[in-house]
Amino acid sequence: MVLTIVLLCVALVVVLSVFFYYVPFFLWISARVSGVHISLMQLFLMRIRKVPASIIVRALIEAHKAGLNDVNRDDLEAHYLAGGNVEKVVHALVSASKANIDLGFKMATAIDLAGRDVFQAVQMSVNPKVIETPPVTAVAKDGIQLIAIARVTVRANIRQLVGGAGEDTVLARVGEGIVSSIGSSESHKQVLENPDSISKVVLRKGLDSGTAFEILSIDIADIDIGKNIGASLQIDQAQADKSIAQAKAEERRAMAIALEQEMRAKAQEARAKVIEAEAQLPIAMAEAFKSGNLGIMDYYRMKNIESDTNMRQNIANPPATTK
């Protein structure tokens, strides 16, 4: 008898557990007390569809208390089944409603399904965010390098969150604007004296176009002087010109040496021909004596002329005397 009672109690507990699991009665009471109209059958069907009824009911209660009449159970279930975060969407809708931000349920779910934190976006719309650019290096027209860091105050653009560019694009565009502004300055001193001129020029460019943010202000946090790029370029150019000039001089020197060697070769060739001709002279004279074309008096006369010529050359170019 006792065993039967125990078994009946265990069976009753199991049945009640299964019943209250599939039919969340206390959750239904909580919804009714909060003014949310939902039936037990709908809660039971949520369990069958493997939709957490507690999340849907809490979201409905929060939306009802905040006065959001366009939020219903079917849309919340569909958003959950699509992989969205129901709680963040409802939190974002409530925050947007309190801050008078125009944000509908469809837009909020689209932003959430796009992978963006819709609740954080609404908070950023109310409380703008400050992002800092990495050090941006630019060169003014006078050749002085400047390194600038800017702080960009942005707030979320709800309409552009789906398909809009992110923070990296904003930072890249701001960096590009800083480089352009510094590069168009005549002197680095002008930039150091009026750093706010950079902010004004960059803001006029409309850098937040097509992004998920609206740029409120751009403030130059720090500017440091870097290298003298102009002087470095001039030094490099001078070194290049020097190398070119040295190469051309070396080329001319090589050509002069080659020409000198060629002239020496020709002179040696001429001397060789003269020596060869002088070597043929005694033979020719002997042949002339034999043939009778040259007499002894002709020979002496030639020697006298040769001696006279040598004497005249010595008189004209006397040898140097040493003391």
Oligomer: single chain
Count the E strands.
Answer: 4
Low-confidence stretches: none
The helix fraction, in percent, is: 55-70%
Number of helices: 13
Question: What can be said about the biggest beta sheet?
Answer: 4 strands, antiparallel
Percentage of β-strand residues: 5-15%
Which overall shape is indicated by the principal axes computed on the Cα atoms? rod-shaped
Mean pLDDT: 81
Description of the structure:
The protein is α+β, with helices and mostly antiparallel strands and 323 residues long. It is 64% helix and 11% strand. It has helices spanning 2-22, 25-33, 40-48, 53-65, 73-81, 86-98, 105-113, 118-126, 167-183, 188-193, 196-203, 229-291, 296-316; strands spanning 129-132, 136-139, 144-156, 213-228. Helix 6 (86-98) runs parallel beside helix 8. The longest helix has 63 residues, at 229-291. It is rod-shaped and about 175 Å long.
